[in-house]
Amino acid sequence: MNKKDIVSFSYNELQQEMKEIGEKAFRGKQIYEWLHVKLAEDFSQMTNLSKGLREKLEAFYEIPQMHVEAHQISKKDPTEKFLFRLWDGNMIESVLMKYDYGNSVCISSQAGCRMGCRFCASTIGGLQRNLASSEMLRQIYQIQKISGERVSNVVVMGTGEPLDNYDNFLKFIHMLSDEHGLHISQRSITASTCGIVPNMRRLAEEGLQITLALSLHGSSQEKRKKLMPVANRYNLREVLEACDYYFEKTGRRVTFEYSLVKDVNDQPEDIKELTEILQRRNCHFNLIPVNPVRERDYERPDRKNALEFKNKLEKNGINVTIRRERGSDIDGACGQLRRRHAAASEGETDEIICND
Fold first, then answer.
1. Residue among 93, 135, 161, 257 flagged as catalytic
2. What is the longest distance spanned by two Cα atoms in the chain?
3. Number of H helices, E strands in the chain
4. CA-to-CA distance for 36 and 175, rounded, in angstroms?
5. Model's pTM, two decimal places?
6. 317 vs 315: CA distance, rounded Å
7. Known active-site residue 334
8. What digits encode the pLDDT tens for the residues 204-227?
9. 93 belongs to the catalytic site
């Protein structure tokens, strides 16, 4: 973009920006409301601004465009999948999941991912770029406009590693929970990380109340290294200490995500090692039977084995749930629709399935 991204200005920054271009500060408040409450996509919609100011905004600022490339609605459950095309042609995914307690949206924080987790298709092709805070916000805004319903919960668990895009992610959290915008409670926001220890500790110091979810996926350092390249940089002990620090500083219990892979991390020794890791921690453990990826060899365990794994952990005092499969008929898992779209663009026709 050649113009300034006006959606990424915070409430205070936008007021200051208006003063710097010769306008009254209150114009920044009006524009912020148009962008983050009324969800305007064009300056011409801002009818309480003068024509001259709208022309000035048009000349120097940009509302990053996000077009719906694909929209799939599940016939099995109240889940909808969106593939958005960004201004530069990059594709990102978001998911709307409707529950009795409200609507939850899962968003992406990067176009692509460089973390390289072995079982995940989101990392295939690597990282294209970080998303601006505006692009994270506008996934939610677009879904709220399309659905006509308010979003009450946000999960940053789509494509990308949010703590690898730390500054933009942090600004996104502040703007999403800002009382002048959608004002979504920080306690209703969850962010997933594969374990970037320095930024986990930075996040603990920010004074936020979001839930941190760690992608654990291995019961030992050696198993994590086989599945997750990030473990070569940060060992399991460091990662767990960072989780403890987050709980200590925020009082928010950490969720441990565990993609269950057949004959890889679903063995009796894994139950023993997980019990040693989790038994003394105030945490929640979320089992995710892995989704097969065409480019990988990993398989998901059958339902019976997954339930046995869960039950044995529960007998050892671990608070465990198995993630309920949502949107299985609409490429519901993270990266799946994006990969299928890329394959179609390259002339391939086989369905591509990946994990969240």
1. 93
2. 70
3. 11, 14
4. 9
5. 0.90
6. 5
7. yes
8. 999 999 999 999 999 999 999 999
9. yes
